[in-house]
Amino acid sequence: MEHDIRDEIFSGVNGKIVTASIIADDGGIIADTGAVKEKAVSLGLSVERVLTEGTRVKRGDEIARFSGNPKQLAMAEEVIIGIMSKPSGIATAARRFVKKAGGRPEIVCGAWKKMPLSQKESIRRAIAAGGARSRICREPFVYLDKNYIEMLGGIEEGLKKVTQLNGHVKVVQLKGRYGDIADEAIKSVRYGAGIVFIDTGKRNDIRRVAGKLRASELRDMVRIAFGGDIRIKDMDELKGLDVDILAIGRQIVDAPLLDMRMEVIGNGT
Question: For the whole model, what pTM was predicted?
Answer without folding.
Answer: 0.91
